[in-house]
Amino acid sequence: MEGLTAVQSRISEIQSRMASFAAGGPNAAWLSAASAAGLTTSATTASSATTAAVGTSAETSVVQAAQNYLGVPYLWGGTDPTKGLDCSGFTQRVYADLGISIPRTSSQQATAGTAVASLADARPGDLVFFDNSSARAGIDHVGIYLGNGKMIAAPQEGDVVKVQDVGTPTVIRRILPTTTATTSSSSAGGGLSGVPYSDLFTAAAAKYGVSASVLAGMAKVESGFDTTAVSGAGAQGLMQFMPSTAAGLGVNPLDPASAIDGAAKYLSQLTARFGSTDLALAAYNAGPGAVASAGGIPPYPETQNYVRKVTAAAAAYA
């Protein structure tokens, strides 16, 4: 992911493109769509009318980049706006315009960036995800949050990219980079005061380049910080290692120092393999093979809940 500075450096370019798209072409319909949603027709006023929450230039640039594609027809599997876009092709294209790479499908995109706890905490530019299909479990639709209860999305066959009510998202993810101060605090484990074994989490995080708050969140969800815990499946100790996994890592699962060090090492390996913390957590819970086969977080309620719970716990410790 490009840094915040790189995103901001492209705002002028995006605004220039806005002017050309507004004049005509496949996105001429964006004027009426924006007006209906309470947005105005110029790049400057649209960003202020969307919501007062558009507090950073990076957020504004995402909203404006998304508005470039209003009126583009929906096309299943589409990634070329001259032909059509599907929901995740649209969101991927918007972030690519800003120099930010995200995965192709909505289920994969739902693991990118960082979790947002609720719609009340959402910011313009956040990705909002939905499970709309009763035929199969899992994320199957994505849009970009605009603020004020609105999102912009490529909805369905026969429709176009448009602004619509956001409804109730299943998952919300923030793709834009967070501030350096927040990242530093999280990595250092500054919010772990009073957490059992906080010194071990902090040391292991620094050793393997992972988040101390995520490690602590894993321990809370896995065992409730109980070093003697044994699950019905046979997972052991603070970090709930299966004996075979522990043996492969050279870990004593019942020793907290060894277990935390091993969990940090394993989390680092999984993150390097799958490219995100959420996928690494899913692999820690369900196994790397399950994540590889699913191409994202597997559609297992236990694993999906595990990722959400650890992420929430980590956020509280950050």
TrEMBL record:
GO MF annotation list: cysteine-type peptidase activity
Gene3D superfamilies named among the record's database cross-references: 1.10.530.10, endopeptidase domain like (from Nostoc punctiforme) (3.90.1720.10)
Signal peptide limits: none
UniProt-listed Pfam families: NLPC_P60, SLT
A Gene Ontology biological process term: proteolysis
Domain NlpC/P60: start-end pairs: 56-183
UniProt entry keywords in alphabetical sequence: Hydrolase, Protease, Thiol protease
Keyword hit for Ligase: no
Entry similarity comment: Belongs to the peptidase C40 family.
Stated name of the protein: Cell wall-associated hydrolase, NlpC family
UniProt organism field: Klenkia soli
The organism's taxonomic lineage, starting at the top: Bacteria, Bacillati, Actinomycetota, Actinomycetes, Geodermatophilales
